[in-house]
Amino acid sequence: MQYPTIPICPGTLLFLPKFCSFPQKLQLFQPKFPVVGRNYCFCRPRTASPGGFSVRSQMGTLSSRDNGFCTLIEYMGRGGINVGDDLVVLFDHIQYACKRIAALVASPFNSALAKQSKVANSGSGSDRDAPKPLDIVSNEIILSSLKNSGKVAVMASEEDDVPFWLNDDGLFVVVTDPLDGSRNIDASIPTGTIFGIYKRLMELDHLPQQEKASLNSLQCGTKLLAAGYVLYSSATILCTSFGTGTHAFTLDRSTGDFVLTHPDMKIPSRGQIYSVNDARYFDWPEGLRQYIDTVRQGKGSYPKKYSARYICSLVADFHRTLMYGGVAMNPRDHLRLVYEANPLSFLVEQAGGRGSDGKSRILSMQPVKLHQRLPLFLGSLKDMEELESYGDVQQKVNPGYEV
After folding, report:
1. Residues 282 and 144 in one domain
2. Which of 308, 96, 311 is nearest to 183 (CA)?
3. pTM for this structure?
4. Any domain includes 354
5. Which one is catalytic: 87, 104, 113, 129?
6. What's the chain's Rg over C-alpha atoms?
7. What CATH number is attached to the domain comprising 347?
8. Strand ranges (DSSP E) for 234-280?
9. Which residue is catalytic, options 135, 257, 349, 357?
10. Which of 90, 113, 143, 179 is catalytic?
11. Cα(110)–Cα(134) distance, rounded to whole angstroms?
């Protein structure tokens, strides 16, 4: 049987057989058998080992102890911060799903998916963006991995109208935006996956299934056990926090491991960059216009002129802000509290920054519906304090932009 192949790095191919559980037009990226590289098998999740692990390949065996590298699973395991076996298993399935999405995003088959007939928006009014073929495939990949983990009771996704109840024995609730920024795929602009993990609320088990699924997914951000994003760019980077700092792992495509490259990330207390679509300047409130005018002239609390950097990809703009400081923002009611604002605010706070809607701390907000939208400001602590001191920074004028 002939399978399509996707090159993911020099010397490595992914073999992707079709799978009958996918919608017919979207079968391409659902493997029926392990996804195999020439030198490494990506499909079977490994369990954490307190004594390190070995990579077995046609090129020999390499222990993580031999080179000083620490993988994501090692870091989480008993030799690292020891988050518990259940969370290790869940993360192993999440990282596997994200490797598949990374291969999907980099694949030449994207053009074929993009030419599929337009997918209608089945969401609840304006609360959801119209799903695209790549969004749907990414959502199915994550759903399949979470089911296979056996650890997840509820999955709530940007691509679904309501949360799914997956497993009566699951301990966790996962909220996710499977492929943020998918409109940028054709231009090869970075995209990402965002996720947050909560404990399942056992006290809700007496309720009907759909009701308890919905309530489990509407937990306050202060209850997050872990959160993360995966950036699909020149490198594939998984950035995560378990409540003990923010750490980033880079995918080593020769072994298939996420390797710790940015331990204990700290966002600078002040940056020199703002990230916003300032083509909307004349729709902004006076406070936000004054803030931007002030900092880009170098007349703010930091006496240097700020630069504008804007990709229009939430994960990419946030990742740059986390690395270099400053503020990333969308001042209108556009981004979703549950699966975008909460996870990213958790990460920036763990790195020493702040997440806000322009007035209040994001993580302290109680969600009232799954696709609830709000303004979002993320960044360095001193920059955020200065921004909020201008008062009126939330954009209420929303004429319905097409791009």
Report:
1. no
2. 311
3. 0.83
4. yes
5. 129
6. 21
7. 3.40.190.80
8. 236-241, 246-252, 257-265, 273-275
9. 135
10. 179
11. 8
